[in-house]
Amino acid sequence: MECFICSTESNEVPSAGDYKQLACPECGEYRLSGTAIALFKEHNWKFNIEETRRWLASQRSGGTIPLISSERAATLI
After folding, report:
1. Between vectors from CA 23 to CA 18 and to CA 27, what angle results, nearest 5°?
2. Per DSSP, what are the bridge partners of residue 20?
3. What top-level branch of life does the organism fall under (predicted)?
4. Could you list the residue range(s) of the whole structural domain that residue 28 is in?
């Protein structure tokens, strides 16, 4: 599967929630909500790669896998 952020070939991690979890060699591991995925498809949005990677890095400092919600995704395009 391609990374939602940078389109690099990535591994999808099995998840139990309303999100997709990916492990990208360039962006790291993250979760993207189902609503955010739907909005990206509907509006043909693209992430700002550098800004999104910075946000992900800041969220990882707590030791958790970041979740990009639809609200957060709208600020990272």
Report:
1. 110
2. 32
3. Bacteria
4. 11-75
- Neighbouring residues of 40: CB distance < 8 A, sequence distance ≥ 6: 4, 46, 73
Collapsing DSSP states into helix, strand and coil, what is residue 46?
Answer: coil
Amino acid residing at 32 = L
Q: Assess if residue 5 is contained within a domain.
A: no
Tokens of 63: 């030791």
Number of structural domains (the chain) is: 1
* Six token digits for residue 16: 């139990």
Tokens representing residue 34 in the block: 């189902």
Q: Is the pTM of this model over 0.85?
A: yes
Tokens 């991690």, residue located:
13
Q: Answer yes or no: are the C-beta atoms of 54 and 24 closer than 8 Å.
A: no
Q: Which amino acid makes up residue 4? A: F
What element of type H or E holds 34?
Answer: helix 34-43
